[in-house]
Amino acid sequence: MKGKCNLSGLKKLADGIQGADVKVDEFMEKLIKDMGAQLLRQTGKKTPVGEYGSGSGKKGGTLRRNWSISPVEKIGDVYRITIYNNTEYAPYVEYGHRKSNGKGWVPGKHMLSISSKELETAAPGFIERRIKTFVKEVLGL
């Protein structure tokens, strides 16, 4: 008994794998950028907004507005993004500080630290979903 073997599916798979190299960098940059944007949103929501003297009705927001994100850097096989805040008092709000009279401690709000831990917990599922979508696109499934 003679049979024919159709290898068109295998050829399509091989072509998709060969083209994947080019797309991996784009995929990784977008993934890191999206995760950084999520961290930026979460951190901004947790950042307190100062209030001026009672009755003035004025609110701050400088610290919340000044969260920024760097472009994605690729160093070897590592992709890196930095979330930062150039506001002078940002570290004091994040980590805490002594009161101005030197008596007592103002606890930190840990808005970036808490958001980073939340993202770290959610990252495996987020990354897995993105990878599945990427593989399907590359292989044309």
Please give a structural write-up:
With 141 residues, the chain is an alpha+beta fold. It is built from 4 helices and 6 strands, in the order ααββββαββα. The protein has a two-stranded antiparallel sheet. A two-stranded antiparallel sheet has the order 2-3. The model has no long low-confidence stretch (mean pLDDT 85).
Please report the total strand number as a whole number: 6
Task: Report how far the terminal alpha carbons are from each other.
Answer: 32 Å
Q: Looking at the structure, what is the overall shape? A: elongated
> How many structural domains?
1
Key words describing this protein structure:
single chain, 141 residues, alpha+beta, two-stranded antiparallel sheet, two-stranded antiparallel ribbon, 55% helix
Topology:
Elements (H helix, E strand, L loop, with lengths): L7 H39 L15 H4 L1 E3 L3 E3 L2 E3 L2 E3 L4 H6 E3 L6 E3 L3 H29 L2
Antiparallel strand pairs: 1-4, 2-3, 5-6
Helix pairs in contact: 1-4
Short account of what is shown:
The chain is an alpha+beta fold. The chain has 4 helices and 6 strands; from the N terminus they run ααββββαββα.
